[in-house]
């Protein structure tokens, strides 16, 4: 009887020890799995972070490259003489109230209203006040005007160009002599068609170009409603 009892106790101890060893092995296995998962997650986060940073850097580099190319193109355009361009110098630039009698049509500079027109790629379907438009020119905008001799195709083409060009605006100007007139501060070009290559040359040279009296000044809407 005593011998059988000792044997049973020994068997239980052996079984308990076996269970303990199995538990230890499970714990080690779980730790290894948890560690491996952690490493993979961390690697994914690091890799993902690297990709995000790399992608952000690539986009930033691309923007810098575009900006540099644009600046270079404008610098080259500033040196090009555009045939047919007229210029005026020594223009006054006082802020005044009421109407101003300008010596050229449309005006390209002179005294003007203290409020400028929205010239952030704005296309107006009605004639706008000279005095506000001239203030926009002072900020470096190009003002496109046209009379009833302009074709609908020309109007559409110019409208699309202006709409995607910050620091430009467009409006009808029935009393102008030329079919289409491009104006910047102290500068003007008359063309017969929107397809005239000088249109693109004028935009490239004079949108925020060397004639700008107040570089970087806002061209957004300041509440002027023509």
Automatic annotation (TrEMBL):
Residues 14-23 have a biased composition (Basic and acidic residues). InterPro entries: DUF3105 (IPR021454). Keywords: Membrane, Transmembrane, Transmembrane helix. Residues 1-23 are annotated as: Disordered. The chain crosses the membrane at residues 32-53. It holds the Pfam family DUF3105. This is DUF3105 domain-containing protein. It comes from Peterkaempfera bronchialis.
């Amino acid at each position: 009887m005593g011998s059988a009892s000792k044997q049973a106790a020994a068997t239980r101890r052996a079984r308990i020890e076996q269970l303990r060893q199995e538990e230890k092995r499970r714990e080690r296995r779980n730790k290894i799995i948890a560690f491996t998962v952690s490493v993979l997650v961390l690697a994914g986060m690091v890799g993902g972070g690297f990709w995000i940073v790399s992608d952000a850097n690539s986009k930033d580099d691309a923007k810098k490259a575009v900006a540099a190319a644009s600046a270079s193109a404008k610098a080259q355009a500033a040196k090009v003489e555009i045939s047919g361009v007229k210029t005026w110098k020594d223009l006054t630039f006082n802020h005044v109230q009421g109407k101003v009698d300008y010596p050229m049509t449309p005006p390209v500079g002179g005294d003007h209203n203290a409020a400028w027109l929205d010239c952030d790629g704005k296309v107006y379907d009605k004639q706008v006040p000279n005095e506000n438009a001239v203030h926009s020119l002072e900020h470096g905008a190009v003002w496109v005007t046209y009379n009833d001799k302009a074709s609908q195709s020309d109007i559409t083409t110019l409208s699309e160009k202006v709409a995607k060009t910050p620091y430009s605006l467009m409006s009808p100007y029935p009393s102008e002599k030329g079919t289409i007139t491009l104006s910047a501060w102290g500068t003007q070009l008359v063309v017969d068609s929107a397809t005239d290559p000088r249109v693109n040359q004028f935009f490239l040279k004079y949108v925020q170009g060397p004639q700008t009296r107040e570089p970087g000044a806002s061209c957004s809407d300041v509440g002027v409603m023509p």
